[in-house]
Amino acid sequence: MTTYPALRMFIAGQWIADGEAGTMEVVNPSTGAVIGRCPKASTAQLDAALKAAGDAFPSWSATPGAERHAILRRAADLLRARAESIARVITAEMGKPRAQGVGEILSACDTIDFLGEEAKRRGGRLIPTRGNQLLAQMVTHEPIGPAVLLTPWNFPVNLPAKKIAGALAAGCTAIFKPAENTPASAQLLVECFVEAGLPEGVLNLVHGDPGPIAEHLIASPVTRKVSFTGSTAIGKQLGALAATHMKRFAPELGGHAPVIVSKNADLARAVAMCATTKFRNAGQVCVSPTRFLVAKEVYDEFVAEFAARTSRIKVGDPGADDSVDMGPLAHARRVAAMEQVVADAGGNRGEVVTGGSAIAGQGFFFQPTVIANPAPDSRFMIEEPFGPVAGIVPFDDIADAVRIANSLRYGLAAYAFSADLDEAHALGRALRAGMVGINQLIVSSPETPFGGVGDSGFGSEGGEEGYLAFTDTKLVMLAKAGG
Known about the structure:
This protein is an alpha/beta fold. The protein has two domains: 264 residues, Aldehyde Dehydrogenase, Chain A, domain 1 (3-Layer(aba) Sandwich); 189 residues, Aldehyde Dehydrogenase, Chain A, domain 2 (3-Layer(aba) Sandwich). It contains 15 helices and 19 strands. The strands form five sheets. It has a seven-stranded mixed β-sheet with strand order 14-15-16-13-12-17-18, with helices on both faces. A hairpin with a 6-residue loop joins strand 5 and strand 6. The protein starts with 8 loop residues before the first strand and ends with a strand.
């Protein structure tokens, strides 16, 4: 049994339990019980974090890449060693089953390792000159400056790890503001970096009300980069604020991922993968497969098997039962949102094949739900549900499926299943998304960029892009001193 830790902030190399702006409750979504109180940073404490990040930047940015790599590598090793205990905290804070939490943490470790290696690999390039007077044209990537990192609750270790490791590897200092309901997961991650030998002021952790904190940190002249993962609506607000102050802004926003299942697909494999992946983390995943567009020739079979598999998902408190497949939603308001989505799909606007209701009792639980043939203008087909609701739509031909898939302004992830090689290649080109999975539902690894287009944001985390996102490109043209 993991004890929930006493919650603290980390500012200028010091752990701080006293939030000068008060405290906020942390609730276990499986039980509705308050499990902790988190300190809220005052304006003065935010300014202290900004000063610490600003003061530490010259030294940290000048630290050789090999030394930055060594610290990040030690942090990843510490995180691996603590994966089981931290996963239990993730379960308590946001309801993710323990095994999924462990998987998230181990993935974060691999990402930290990769981005740390980039600190050693990245230098720049030489461009050939056009004449004898120029000796060299050098392009370098220099750390942009102190960064503000704003993260959500659904992957409370992996998403912060991408941002923190990218910033630190590139030579940036950072102020990290996690989601209000997952402060302990963030704290335990930061502890690994601190114990790995990170110098004072390089990484700071603050808690509190997200709106006022983001506004204050973004407006500060110390801040040079803002990285945000969250909803499209909030991303647009923060993007406008960042633009006002001429700050670099990298948003990773919502998605509504389509899955095209061709008549040429391996249907048994496709439906098994789709039904399992859809309800991972209770569907609270930005790249979650959500709109299943299925060829009419195999539509009825797909719906029947998908619904059968969905009905067998074991839902419950993952903190009390390790065999649970799906835990609660993060908030009571997410349950209300699912009820509205399902209600809109009733009558002649779609058929609820299985699920469709909140689960009575303590906690914030909702049944895994399948809607067959939801109306094109239904809430489900237009708004990101961000929960355990799947919709299955028949299509006549691939061109029609691509049209439906690309009909929204979201463009984070998209998927397709087809055993026809030419068709698979064509779908990979035609789907409008930052990441496309063909015959599989994994679109993220430490070595690859993670990001979207359209209302899903711009820029990427992970891969070499996750390092370069925290750098400025500089050109140096060196000429001879004399004739």
